[in-house]
């Protein structure tokens, strides 16, 4: 019986130690919220497939699988199948107020130090990879609260720039903004990616890229790719 109580006390002590350790890890996070969001988008018709996105936080912890799949895009519309008589999308240049892009929250991580992304630019086609450095000035913006009028709430609220959104364009351009639910995005960097010589899927697809939609293909055949605009 005494042995049972000793084992029970040891298990409780171990459980308490693990709980305290978890609390200490969370307490060491430099941001005032539980998680920050990473999102990706592409200019109209310039379709992108993200093979992988990985994050290194300020504590040098690596978070794999932070993004993947089709990047957010306005044109072509998701359900559109027929090639239009006129194209409404405007791929030239970047939007004044980019949205949050397609992505997710990076949980159990502190603020980012570096973001790695490898993607297929399907309109070229080409495979790029970029190491995007996140400067301390950006992290400071993510830490600092802002009093702002939020239309969604109809009142002044305390908001944070808790999201990083990255635009991926042909030619290997990766542009980064930091933003919040009710705050205007702020551009923080422009990175020139390099061509991944292995090609799509690290050379495991025999050079085969993800297929481009017929609408985007028709746009590029008619108007080309506005490389110099990004």
Features:
DUF2931 family protein, disordered N terminus, DUF2931, signal, alpha+beta, 12 strands, 230 residues, globular, 5-stranded antiparallel beta sheet, 2 domains
Output the number of helix runs.
Answer: 3
State the distance separating the first and last CA atoms: 73 Å
Portion of residues within helices: 10-25%
Structural class: alpha+beta
Name the overall outline: globular
| Total count of strands | 12
SSE order: HEEEEEEHEEEEEEH
* Strand percent estimate: 35-45%
Rg over alpha carbons: 22 Å
Descriptive overview:
This protein is of the alpha+beta class. It has two domains: 30 residues; 198 residues. Helices cover 19% and strands 38% of the residues. It has three helices and twelve strands; from the N terminus they run αββββββαββββββα. The strands form three sheets. It has a five-stranded mixed beta sheet, with helices on one face. It has a five-stranded antiparallel beta sheet with strand order 3-2-5-6-12, with no helix packed on it. The longest helix has 26 residues. The N terminus is likely disordered.
Q: Helices and strands in order, then pairings?
A:
Layout: H1 2-27, E1 36-41, E2 48-57, E3 62-70, E4 102-106, E5 112-121, E6 126-133, H2 136-143, E7 145-150, E8 155-160, E9 163-169, E10 173-180, E11 183-192, E12 194-195, H3 214-223
Parallel strand pairs: 1-9
Antiparallel strand pairs: 1-4, 2-3, 2-5, 5-6, 6-12, 7-8, 9-10, 10-11
Brief characterization of the structure:
With 230 residues, the protein is of the alpha+beta class. The protein is built from three helices and twelve strands.
């Amino acid at each position: 019986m005494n042995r049972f109580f000793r084992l029970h006390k040891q298990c409780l002590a171990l459980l308490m130690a693990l709980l305290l350790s978890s609390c200490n890890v969370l307490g060491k996070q430099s941001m005032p919220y539980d998680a920050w969001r990473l999102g990706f988008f592409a200019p109209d018709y310039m379709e992108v497939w993200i093979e992988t996105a990985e994050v290194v936080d300020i504590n040098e912890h690596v978070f794999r699988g932070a993004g993947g799949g089709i990047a957010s895009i306005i044109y072509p519309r998701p359900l559109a199948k027929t090639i239009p008589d006129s194209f409404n999308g405007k791929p030239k240049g970047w939007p004044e107020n980019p949205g949050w892009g397609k992505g997710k929250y990076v949980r159990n991580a502190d603020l980012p130090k570096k973001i790695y992304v490898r993607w297929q630019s399907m309109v070229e086609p080409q495979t790029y990879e970029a190491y995007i450095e996140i400067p301390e000035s950006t992290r400071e913006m993510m830490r600092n609260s802002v009093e702002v009028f939020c239309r969604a709430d109809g009142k002044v609220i305390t908001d944070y720039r808790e999201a990083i959104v990255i635009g991926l364009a042909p030619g290997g351009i990766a542009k980064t903004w930091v933003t919040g639910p009710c705050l205007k995005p702020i551009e923080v960097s422009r990175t020139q990616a390099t061509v991944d010589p292995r090609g799509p899927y690290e050379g495991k697809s025999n050079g085969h890229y993800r297929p481009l939609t017929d609408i985007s293909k028709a746009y590029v055949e008619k108007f080309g790719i506005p490389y110099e605009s990004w």
